[in-house]
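User: What would this chain look like folded?
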Amino acid sequence: MTINALAAEMVMDRTTLGRNILPLERDGLIAVEKGRRDRRSKTLRLTEAGAARFQAAIEGWTQAQRQFAAAFGAKRTVDMRALLHAVAATDLGTTTARAENDP
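Assistant: Here's the prediction, encoded as structure tokens.
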């Protein structure tokens, strides 16, 4: 996956993502390679060590999500996630935000 594609998927600025992946690359969890079609682009690849770390993290994440749903309530958890997905999918450009907030 390219850095630009991942940044878009994560609703992040490409520059911010670029800085955030540096420790992952340093620790050998991802590899940053030149794009195959466009040598100017960068492609991210999960390494074997990264895949192993990811699999180990899934167990803890799943447990944390269960605990949250138990404390917050299953329906409220589903509703909250739907709302957060809607926020992430919304174009929050400055012109849109101003137009909606102006009386």
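Residues 9 and 17 are 11 Å apart (CA to CA). If you want, I can go into more detail on any region.
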